[in-house]
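Quick one: structure tokens for this chain, please?
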Amino acid sequence: MKKTFLSLLSIMLLFIMFSPESFARQNHPPTNGETNISSIITYDEMIKELESIEKRSKDELEVFTLADLGYEYDKSEQGRDLYVAKVGNGPKTVWVQSRIHGDEPYGTEATLQLLKRYTSNQSAQYQDVMDELTLYFIPMYNPDGSEMNIRQTVLYDQEAGEPLLNSNGNEIRVDLNRDWAEGAFQAVESKAWYSYWTDVQPDYALDIHHQGLKTDPETEEAITMSLGISLAPGGPTLPNLEGGLYEDLTRQMQVHVYDALKDYGYINIDRYTVGNVNSGFSEIDIHGGVVSAMMLGLNYEGQNEEEYSHPAIFFETSGNTREGNLGQRARGHNIQQNVRGIQSLLHGLATGEVYDADPERWDEIPRPDIDGYTTDHSGFVPVGF
């Protein structure tokens, strides 16, 4: 009788451990609002690490600031240098930016890990990337927000060295990922990075983000990464760019990454959506996002008169500090899924495997049914517009 009871108890415990709800709990960061940010890399630590990697790289890595290049706008609102890490010698160029939102940190750490690999690993996988691509890593796009652990940056009176205040006496904060648009460019970081982008003219871009905690509405399993882009495939804008070329390329890039990551046990991927089961889901079609402006060929103050543009995608890792759910338990996995995702995309671009992906298989990436597209230009656009 006792043995039977223990056997049944063991079965029940196994069921609980491997149930979807348990899977979600194990793969999500804790949701109790407690976030230990002491292990998150700081601006000064990033600089130290970049310089250390550069020193060991035997001239494979070049680390510099926009001030080193002599740009008119070359620092953050609070006067911090804006760093670039350039590696590779190939004809195709890729812009990889992270931490445009200061409370979304793991893109920076993934970048540093990859720079170590690209400058020290001689395997064919890494050499293909080094030979075929030139990579421009922006490890900390928003250094002020990163140091303040906030999503935005704070506008400063450059002469007084104090925050600018609004009519209510509150400091003015700007989301840098909504600041590349006509009538925007409020922050000096936006002007600086835009000017540099118009000179680099990359062939592709990748933007590394975090999102809130997500679960699959059907299986209740934790979503650890969402793949997407701020101009949704099939939405109001992307199919009309470059005769549909960017529509196909962004889907191919996402399919390639999905195939590379979906079989890792700790990674569970879907397509990026906003909303929930109660309010309904939508995809975003935001013209003011930085990579959106890149894809649209934004010409700000005549700096991009030819309206140069290129395709892009973004990664959204689960958990962030602003909602108190970054945690430590999932730290290693979240950084590694970014490392693996960036690595797979870059290798696919280097070898041409990305272009072999069937763009129609983008529909195979899980996603809840959507009602339409959330935009910053036309309000809410319903499906079937």
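The longest helix spans residues 331-351.
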